[in-house]
Amino acid sequence: MFNKKILIVDDIEYVRDPFVRFLNRRGFKNVITAAKADEALEKIEREKPDFIVLDIQLEDKIDGVEILRRTKAGLSPNSKIVMMSGHKDIYEDECLKLGAIEFWGKPMDPDIMIENIKRILSTL
Length: 124
Hints:
Layout: E1 6-9, H1 13-25, E2 31-34, H2 37-47, E3 51-55, H3 64-75, E4 80-85, H4 88-98, E5 102-105, H5 110-121
Parallel strand pairs: 1-2, 1-3, 3-4, 4-5
Helix pairs in contact: 2-3, 3-4
């Protein structure tokens, strides 16, 4: 389970980087990151991550919803994607219809996130 490739997409460094270190300390060693939409799309196409945690609001021309749409349409349709946002009520239905397996509201307790990731990876 811990050898599955995980991509964390978040444009906020002080959110993304501590989360990656938190995952690494708990045994997840195959974690990659992207801070921008174009970087995320390139890594999704090249790396074909097993699991993606994708923030919706990115400081870019393309948001997380569009990255989800493109990923499921062909970049890496088998990747399991969880969307994250502080605006769950606005985006959740659309993201689930587009193929996200879950939608997590921000902020989320890191220990709960780890348990959710373990649960999802155990199904892969």
